[in-house]
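Example record for the data management plan.
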Amino acid sequence: MASWLIAVVVIFGFLSAPSRSSAAAAGKQVVIAHAAMNARVAPLWVARERGFFAKYGVDADTIFVRGAPTLVAAMQSNEIDVGYTGGTAVVGAVANGADLKVLSAFTNRITYDLMVKPGIKRPEDLRGKIFGIQSIGGTVWMGAILALEHLKLDAERDKINIIAVGDQNVLAQALETGTIDATVLDGVQSRRLNALGFPILADLNEANLPILSSGFVMREPNLQKNPQLAENLMKAVIEGAAFSLSTSQKPSTLKILQKYLRITEKDAEEGYRDLGSGTDKKPYAAPAGVTNVVRLMKRSNPKVEKVKPEQLIDDRILKKLDQSGFIDEVLAKYGVK
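Corresponding structural encoding:
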């Protein structure tokens, strides 16, 4: 209930506030929102905590919005300036006429573990079982569908009942209590359950299943109006990623993970592992990730088929930063190879 009330307060706050597009243009605070709550958001949090936004001349703040569709809707109404989010809601919005562009993506593959209850040992044991996800059409749902495809299973054919349960914490609890038979979880949750005897049926990070996730998203008119703002924001988050991946800065990153995720030091260590394995050093959005999102979403929304990777991805600023040597210099500064 507390989490629900916080979400309502946050949403009411930005929906009742003055338009942020004019605020950003006037040099006031820029709001960057994320809909995920996992270790891979660390580049954003580090940029805030270590003062990288200010370093590159931007007054920016980060907020959590429960649900990517809500985040994207707020971007369209200029209540949020930048989204740090997955591709599902973005693709759906663009199919319906939204003018969103993906500037970069720090994660371009499914990084979950496919977790199952004890007694399920083979992929075929999932037939007729209940598979929990966060929301239909979301990133976790896509992870589930791609996981089943990887295991040569089909939810409809194999009578696998996919139900919306809640976020990663709720999904882990549902599996632990037997409410569901399977789900896909981040390493922080999956390794804890694995230690309790719950099998990892598939490590999806190793399967290298493309998907657009942790993308840096802006409205095209705002991008055209102030490309320097976008460049400075990206510099800050790219340095945040380099800091996050630096072994010499690991103690600081662990503290930041503990603060934002409200987890123990042990769980922060697990999250740090996820961060390292799931974060791309040069965050180019992969066209194959967009293609996979479109392929899966068109089952329920045929309009998304018209969304093409070259239409959605605008990596000109990222290429500029890469070709200028900025990304390599920042990685070298923090000893990231």
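Summary line stored alongside the record: Residues 1-26 have pLDDT under 50 and may be disordered.
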